[in-house]
Amino acid sequence: MSQLIATLLQAAFVIAIAPFMSGIVRMCKARLQGRKGASPFLPYLTIATLFKKEMVISEAASWVFRAVPFVVLATSVSVAFILPLLFVGGKLASLSDFLIVGGILMIGSIFLVLGGLDPGSAFGGMGSSREMTLAALVEPIIIMIFATISFVTGTFAIDGMVGQSLIWAHPYLLLSVVAFLFVALAENARYPVDNPATHLELTMVHEAMILEYSGPYLAMVEMASSIKLTVFALLLSNLIFPSTVLGAAGVGIVSIATAFAYGIVKVVIVAALLALLETTIVKMRFYRMQEYLSIAFITALSGMVVAIFAVYAKIGITYYAMFGALAVFFVIFLFGHARSQAMLRYYALSSLAIAGIALSLSFIKEDEKTHLWIFALVTIAVKSILVPRIIRSAQKKYKDVIDPRSFLRPASSYFIAVVILIATFFILENTPIVGLVEYSSLLYASIALVALGLATMIIHRNIFSEIIGLLVIENGIAVFTLVTVQSLPLLVELGVFIVTAVSVFILSILSARIRELHGSADTEQLRKLTE
Amino acid sequence: MDVNGIIYGVFVYFLALALAAALSLSGKYLKKAAALFVGANVIGFITGAIYLARFSSEQIVLARWEWLFHFSPTLSFLPAIFFTLISGVAALVGVYGVRYLELYEKTYDQSSTQFLTILFVLGMQGVLFANNPFAFLFFWEVMSITSFFLVMADRTQESARAAFLYFIMTHLGASAILGGFLILGGGSLFFDFSQLQAASQAVSPALAVLSFLLFLFGFGSKAGLVPFHVWLPEAHPQAPSNVSALMSGLMLKIAVYGFLKVVFSFVGLPYWTGLVVIVLGLLSGIVGALYAVVERDMKKAFAYSSIENMGIIFTMLGVSLYVMQRSSSEEVVVAAAAITAFAIFHAISHAIFKTALFLSSGVVISRVHTKSLEFMGGLAKILPVFSFAFLLAILAAGPLPPFSTFYGEWGFIQNMIGLLHVTSLGTSVSIVLVTTLSFIGLIGGLAIFAMVKIFGISMLGLSRAEHMEKRAEKTDIFLVAPILTLSVAAIVLGIFAKSILASLLAQRASLIGQVSPVPFLSGLSSASVFFVLAFMLALVWMVKNYFAKEKLERSYQTWDCGQPIDSSMEYTATAFSAPVRFFFLRFLGRDKVLKSQPVVATNPWIRKYVFVFSIRSVWKDKLYEPIAKILNTLAQRLRAIQSGRIQYYLLLLLATLIITLIVVL
Questions:
Q1: pTM score, two decimals?
Q2: How many CB pairs under 8 A join A and B?
């Protein structure tokens, strides 16, 4: 009985607070942009007014147009009933299988798309086409994210996933949560995927589809999207802070009040963060969505791969493995970017992760503690700070408007990177060295770094990118020595760092000179022999 | 009713089919023959259902005809599933066919089309009852040849070309299957299927692999696996819509049945064979889904969607084979058996919704007289009931709850995640599973895209058709009723998915000697999914009517920015799929030409634009045409010995004779 009450209360709460969520996002955004903004309670009034208004139905529309608001709202409401938003273990908890929830949300998207197509206007068609593309391409990401979480927790129901402390016990699941954030932004038509504030711009997705709706139907569709936003906000925060979700069994007045209070706090905080995000980033061009979605997918996939490694290594928390994965993960992004500034940023992050490996190893190898600490500090100083600076300063003189593009598009290069990773994995698995080394997961990371560095040099055309590729290879070798050679004399290690820094210095000066002499940093332009 | 009842039922079924075929050939009693065909299939469906409900653990030998090439028709669990499915679907297609052929009496020769259709169904059913390779191949050929003639039923040049492509591919496939059986039987075609397992162990490993590859090609080409798929999008759409429905909905399932029956009896294949099946399956899935998204011919898009679904089914079977080859621990074997059960369930769902979709395409095309999506639209207003049934079928085609299709993929994904936990399988298996998982997700997403595109462009918005037949929906009631029945069947199957799957799982488990039924990985109840969704819909409807009681609405044109809009400004199928085409351009070929020239030479601003766009098949360009070229050059070389003089050929004959004698002696 208490389960039923909990479920009903949760749904009522989510439905009641949904307009407030939309309102508060708008208000925070207005404040951040220096405007005063409307009251966060305005959407309630809007919906109430819309319910009283007359509807204008397009002459071209068929019965599908009329069915759409009902189905869309019904899917949102079902999700509010099913998912563990305030209470875990509610009456419908067994339905919160992630494929079911994904499918229900998909039905909502499909009907919105049909509603956009039915009046026969080009706007609706455009919005529908884009929404459908996003919905289709988000599908594998959702499956990958929840497959990872379900693999770790051993349950297929989101209810069971929220019931366990996930992130704190398995830090690598943070990757899945980040990917889920990407998905949530795309599903709710927020920045950088869609601009929820525009009307009649070519940028829009969601608003274009519902352009022909008016009166009560519009209110229903708006309500549905508010509920969906609230559901995602609550679910995301529940995945990170599972202790804020109360059990549905034996709810009393106190626990209901606590749950509501938690719910309001979460909604307000997520709304503020969302507003902050939307004021600091720009909307991406729609045709760059493949990049966005590839990044989301790769993030989700990395979470899965690390989870599998963790299970095979049979270690609860292996921080060094996580850092190794992060080092490779950042290099994948480096691989996909064409601008050398962005590449340097990811190189610095990847080096930082390598320092993290050394630090986490220092807790395992007690006798080498000081050595590893020095290694980590020098890595940060040289590779994360000094080397990027050197290259940047060498480049600074020539403000190229456009960096030479790499031979591959970003999205395809991400997938090439994944193929390279899989290939290195299979090659390594059949070599005898894996068994000999203690930290085999790091060995994979080092070989992957070397392979990716080489591939970076192959696909990029900027001579500065070639230097970065070389540096990535060097990073791979550094990880390799960290794993295999038990204790290198400190002097030799420091010497390697100095050599790295000096060679980067020389190479970047040399590249800058080449750039000066030939007027281009594009290796395609530098093919001809000159005197 | 006892076992004899089942036997009588099956015999009555086949006799009635034969009688119906004979009647329709005579040409006089077409309607009666069609009714007999439907009736026979209803009997078949009931018989099959009773068998499944009551005697599913027994294998019934219907007769023993040693004199007829040792043919003794046998009914067991797996064939019975397909038998019931085919009878049920064929009955509905039969109802549809009556009105459909009436609409197209000028295009198709009614009596021969009906005769061939009935024989076609007879062939498919015969394959299921075959107990030895000879009978199997005999009925397989009946099925192939009748469908070959049906493809060119409208006797146009285009159909004939598609039919010959089909003829070549299907016979290459059939000869591969023949070869596979000959290897297994040591040159004999009359061994019983119960000896398959022993036979596969008796031959040497290399020969076993060879026969596996032959079977994979044979069944795979029939199922339209990439890269043996080129015939499918040509041949299936050319046939009359009711026959397309039978071909895509049912004939492909016979290929799945054959693969399950034969390849799963192999013992001790190397593990890369499972991997090959997975790769082909995923490739078919992704290629099928992508081409279904970009295709502008409605029936071709459905045909590509069939390729995609066959890809998913073969991926499931491949994963099952692969993990069984990697480990024989109990949990792996159980999961592998469970995956085959989900594959069978997906095959059943596919048969239902794909038949509904092809039948729907027939209704649409009968109204607008074109297969191109670019000239459709606006049909939902004229045909509300039909559009509802069609929409249900479209939703059933994507893996969406509460439709049955969803539960097949659902179980597959869950079992894969479960298999990831089995550390004894090794990391390379994990990578294969994770890759499969992500591709399955992508295929599902794209499949939904393709289906929504087809429905949205063909049924909604303003009509782009040059002339649309606006006759009342009532006249086509016999076209709409079967589609509605099939769509509802997809939902009903979805509601009872859990219990149906439970019995399927138990059966598959008993095959591998597992007594206790395979447990479900999730405590989800498929019925409650449907009822919760239905309840929510009703709730929303009631609440809306409570708050907005009076119906205030007015009809007005679509918002048009001040300039009247017409159907030429609508989004077309090409435009709708543009983002996906852009994102996956590498995997799709296209020809895009934009020419612009001034209308008058003196004024550069007023220009005339010509835009030509077509999707090319990368497979044809990169794989088939080079092979054709090589064959052509070889043939050119061989022409050197062709002089055309008869004495010369006789000389060659003599030379061959002498050489043979030398070799033999």
A1: 0.89
A2: 272
